[in-house]
Write a structure and sequence with these properties.
The structure is a single chain. It contains 13 helices and twelve strands. With 370 residues, the protein is of the alpha/beta class. α1 packs parallel to α11 and α5 packs antiparallel against α11. 42% of the residues are buried. The C terminus is likely disordered.
């Protein structure tokens, strides 16, 4: 991205509202620095603190958001219908640097003609798919127990006490066939597994060969491991709950690399405590960071990572580039490179055509398209 805007006496610089995010602050600060270097005016949101529950902006910041042309949110800041409606006269787009946009009211944004962009870069979703594979192999091979045997100088397990199992030949259930889910399917191909998927909104043309699309209950009952990859919405929140966990085999595992709200956490804790499933690997939680007194921390049959399992250098670099490119494209009158609500593009074009005539952006910025 060589430039975002030029200085014209008759025009003001684009204004981008950027929230704070304690988990991603260095990346957010880097994006802010790059935007300011290209002539963008930055308006910052309230401070973010570890342990805060994602919420809407305090009223004092609403006037700031209403002055903005683009808003950059995260999974720790809510952008609801009320906020979007209040900002619709000026707001062009909401950009989340990461994949998750569950805190943005996507339906309201679409209705208002506001585009929502995210960081669905290949580095991001492939890194998450690799992480899911790592979880699966660790669970089946029971690496934690094997490592503990060495650390505690225990003897090699007797043949009738072997605890590891192979991934090959197992049935893997995938909840959600988005970029991450489909990438996991590709990575599973050499392992000779049966793959089931539950993804009601999946386009049949994008379903990988060899995947059996099935109902939720059937998947939960048949899978040796269930991997949660859904984008959480009000309709599928706590898709994995007391009832659906109860359908799983006692020998089965659960992997959650989606969002904490995809799983009924208290129900999962009870299930793991009672050994009603063999174990789980979790990267996301209802409250983050995971509270020190969470019962999950006391369980031997769960692998816990701090919502960072796919947080690689390649991913971070790609997210920063994608956020800048998404914002640059919106400024010059193009949809974000990674757009979550493409059905709103026609309405968006109608909205911004009059806005561009007033501000002269489209004419001035057209030449900077890479």
């Amino acid at each position: 991205m060589n430039t975002i805007c030029r200085s014209h006496d008759s025009e003001r610089a684009p204004r981008v509202f950027v929230v704070h995010d304690h988990m991603l602050e260095p990346m957010f600060d880097g994006i802010v620095q790059d935007l300011e270097a290209h002539g963008v005016e930055i308006l910052r949101g309230p401070a973010s603190r570890a342990g805060d529950t994602p919420g809407v902006l305090p009223p004092a910041f609403m006037s700031t958001l209403q002055q903005s042309d683009i808003a950059m949110f995260s999974s720790r800041a809510v952008c609801d219908a009320t906020m979007l409606t209040a900002c619709a006269p000026r707001l062009r787009a909401v950009i989340n640097p990461t994949i998750g946009v569950e805190t943005v009211d996507l339906a309201s944004a679409t209705e208002l003609g506001i585009l929502v962009g995210n960081g669905a870069t290949p580095e991001n979703y492939l890194g998450m798919a690799e992480s899911a594979m790592m979880f699966m192999l660790n669970l089946f091979l029971n690496l934690r127990t094997t490592e503990r045997h060495l650390r505690e100088n225990k003897p090699r397990p007797a043949p009738d006490k072997v605890h590891a199992r192979t991934l090959r030949g197992k049935t893997i259930g995938i909840l959600g066939l988005g970029n991450i889910g489909r990438s996991i399917v590709d990575m599973l191909a050499p392992f000779g597994v049966e793959v089931l998927a539950f993804s009601p909104r999946a386009d049949a043309s994008t379903v990988p060969p060899g995947v059996e699309m099935t109902g939720l209950d059937d998947l939960m009952a048949r899978a040796d491991l269930v991997c949660v990859c859904i984008a959480v919405t009000p309709e599928n929140r706590q898709l994995v709950n007391e009832r659906t966990l109860g359908l799983m085999k006692p020998s089965a595992y659960l992997v959650n690399i989606a969002r904490g709200d995809a799983v009924d956490e208290p129900a999962l804790i009870r299930t793991l405590q009672d050994c009603r499933i063999a174990g789980a690997a979790l990267d996301t939680y209802v409250h983050e960071p995971l509270p020190m007194d969470s019962p999950l921390r006391q369980l031997d049959n769960v692998i816990l990572t701090p919502h960072a399992v796919g947080y690689t250098k390649e991913t971070v670099d790609s997210l920063r580039r994608a956020a800048l490119e998404n914002i640059r494209r919106v400024v010059i009158g193009l949809p974000p490179l990674y757009c979550k609500n493409p059905s709103a593009i026609a309405r968006w074009n109608t909205r911004i055509s009059s806005m561009d005539r007033l501000r002269g952006w489209r004419q001035a910025m057209r030449e900077v398209i890479a």
